[in-house]
Specification:
122 residues, mainly alpha
């Protein structure tokens, strides 16, 4: 699970960087900057919570996993597409995103709770 947390930090940094510097492609609406800022906060906090095993880290991991899957599915069936016209590159990005989301969910499921009965048995 630590790897999942570490892999959530680059998207947080990317979203924060886009919020600060912009993409240079077009002038963005303040709402777009707000969306990137919120995404940076969510990815950053979720990654930190998973790495440090803060209370509620399993909820954050599940929310990130299912949220990414929902985002991809909704963007595939939206007309016009959420991110512009679909290209083969977009489909590869969608598949990688779904693969990462499934990895997050499977890693969360495989994370075992420690068996403390052997430690505290008399």
């Amino acid at each position: 699970m630590t790897l999942v947390g570490v892999l959530l930090l680059p998207p947080a940094a990317f979203c924060a960087l886009v919020t600060i510097k912009g993409t240079g492609l077009h002038v963005r609406h303040p709402v777009e900057e707000g969306v990137f800022l919120v995404a940076a906060a969510i990815f950053g906090y979720a990654g930190s919570a998973i790495i440090l095993r803060w209370p509620g880290w399993r909820i954050w991991a599940g929310t990130i996993g299912w949220g990414l899957i929902a985002l991809v599915v909704l963007s595939l069936f939206k007309t016009p597409p959420l991110f512009g016209p679909a290209t083969s590159f977009d489909l590869r990005v969608f598949l990688v995103t779904i693969a990462f989301a499934v990895f997050v969910l499977l890693a969360k499921r495989r994370e075992r709770k420690p068996d403390l009965a052997a430690v505290f048995d008399d």
